[in-house]
């Protein structure tokens, strides 16, 4: 049988795939120049969108990042290569704006095109693959997340991207963006907190009562099967009736449209993961631990607080992670019923056929969801008991 050549042993298969995809992306339009924010515009490749010097520097940086990504067994070097490639990519797209807008007209807009997004996705996947092969611990992941977010903040504050259409959309809606951010956070994190307050006690009760569990879990599972748009629609007449019947409810802001129906819908979607993971976490507690606690004379409440819940915490936190990431995405739909959040920009952009306005709502949502997922994964890892061999 023929053995693979020595060259194949030093090449990372995912890195090879990313390199091929990255090279293919160079043949796609890198940016578009449009006469205004609504028309489609003309797609331009890298060498047509920027000057030759910047084009050469950015292209070499991207190619270097892809080449370094080919190395096998060098996770930190590959991670650094992805950063080099991303730096070159943002240098190119930032320079594209100022280069193409020179003399293009007052209402001209420059936007990233398919080539940019493909290269960004490839380099981001290369970074994720490098980190996953290294399997960094929780605190190292937290540090890397902080560095990446700090780098993104510096990039945004530097003004390098200020000539792009999405940055111009943000500049004209700065106050509205701040309001949308606070409302999106309130919807996602507020519904998570409410679901935890309701779901934890209900999950504990379901764990201790099979009869209650046989009724509660199927009911919450049925709520999960209702499409999100239908759920938001169902909340509108119910809360409109509540607001019309109870002046006190109307006084605190409950109405048929707006924040209240969106919040309630997200709360109902959140209950199943919280309750089911609480039940699963408590069921995973080793019987010997319960017996030892009972033998020490602990009461039922003491066993629950000091033994069962700490051991079940990783599974419970995994349920909260599911809820948080789910609600960050579903909160976008709240924009359809006046609930605010980033969905306001998404649906405004759809109505106006303005792609960059859609991105103004979509990109922060994706960033918030990824950040929340990483932070919750870190909490789950920190909550796991450390094996005795590791302590030793």
Descriptive account of the structure:
With 392 residues, the protein is mainly alpha-helical. The chain has two domains: 164 residues, no CATH class; 218 residues, MetI-like fold (Orthogonal Bundle). The chain is built from 18 helices and three strands. The protein has a three-stranded antiparallel beta sheet. Helix 8 crosses helix 17, helix 15 runs antiparallel to helix 17 and helix 16 packs antiparallel against helix 17. The protein is flat and about 75 Å long. The mean pLDDT is 87. It is a multi-pass membrane protein. Belongs to the binding-protein-dependent transport system permease family.
Order of helices and strands: HHEEHHHEHHHHHHHHHHHHH
The whole-angstrom Rg is 26 Å
Shape descriptor reads flat
Tell me, rounded to a whole number, the average pLDDT: 87
Q: Give the number of domains.
A: 2
Q: Kindly identify the CATH topology of the largest domain.
A: MetI-like fold
Give the strand content.
Answer: under 5%
Distance between the termini: 45 Å
* Count of discrete alpha- or pi-helical segments spanning 4 or more residues: 18
Low-confidence stretches: none
CATH architecture of the largest domain: Orthogonal Bundle
Largest sheet: 3 strands, antiparallel
Corresponding CATH superfamily of the largest domain: MetI-like
Helix content: over 70%
How many strands appear in the DSSP assignment? 3
Overall SS class: mainly alpha
The CATH C-level name of the largest domain is: Mainly Alpha
Name the assembly state.
single chain
Strand order in space, largest sheet: 2-1-3
């Amino acid at each position: 049988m023929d053995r693979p050549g020595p060259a194949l042993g030093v090449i990372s298969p995912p890195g090879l795939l990313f390199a091929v995809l990255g090279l293919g992306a160079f043949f796609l339009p890198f940016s578009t120049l449009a006469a205004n924010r609504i028309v489609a515009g003309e797609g331009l490749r890298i060498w047509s969108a920027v000057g030759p010097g910047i084009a050469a520097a950015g292209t070499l940086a991207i190619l270097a990042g892809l080449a370094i990504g080919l190395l096998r067994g060098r996770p930190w070097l590959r991670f650094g290569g992805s950063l080099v490639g991303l730096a070159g990519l943002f240098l190119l797209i930032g320079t594209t704006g100022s280069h193409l807008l020179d003399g293009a007209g007052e209402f001209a807009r420059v936007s990233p095109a398919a080539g940019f997004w493909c290269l960004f996705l490839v380099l981001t996947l290369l970074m994720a693959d490098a980190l996953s092969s290294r399997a960094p611990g929780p605190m190292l992941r937290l540090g890397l997340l902080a560095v990446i977010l700090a780098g993104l903040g510096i990039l945004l504050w530097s003004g390098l991207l200020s000539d792009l259409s999405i940055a111009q959309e943000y500049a004209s809606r700065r106050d509205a963006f701040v309001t949308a951010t606070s409302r999106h956070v309130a919807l996602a994190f507020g519904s998570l907190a409410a679901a935890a307050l309701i779901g934890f006690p209900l999950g504990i009760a379901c764990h201790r009562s099979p009869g209650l569990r046989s009724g509660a879990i199927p009911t919450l599972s049925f709520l999960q099967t209702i499409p999100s748009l239908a759920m938001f629609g169902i909340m509108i007449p119910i809360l409109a009736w509540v607001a019309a019947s109870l002046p006190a409810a109307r006084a605190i802001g409950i109405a048929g449209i707006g924040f209240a129906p969106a919040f309630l819908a997200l709360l109902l979607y959140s209950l199943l993961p919280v309750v089911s993971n609480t039940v699963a976490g408590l069921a995973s507690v080793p019987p010997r631990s319960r017996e030892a606690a009972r033998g020490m004379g602990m009461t039922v409440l003491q066993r629950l607080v000091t033994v069962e819940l700490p051991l079940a915490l990783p599974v419970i936190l995994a349920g909260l992670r599911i809820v948080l990431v789910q609600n960050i995405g579903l909160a976008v739909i709240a924009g359809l019923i006046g609930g605010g959040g980033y969905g306001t920009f998404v649906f405004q952009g759809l109505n106006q056929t303005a792609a960059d306005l859609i991105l103004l709502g979509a990109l922060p949502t994706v960033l918030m969801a990824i950040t929340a997922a990483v932070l919750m994964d870190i909490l789950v890892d920190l909550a796991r008991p450390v094996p005795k061999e590791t302590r030793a």
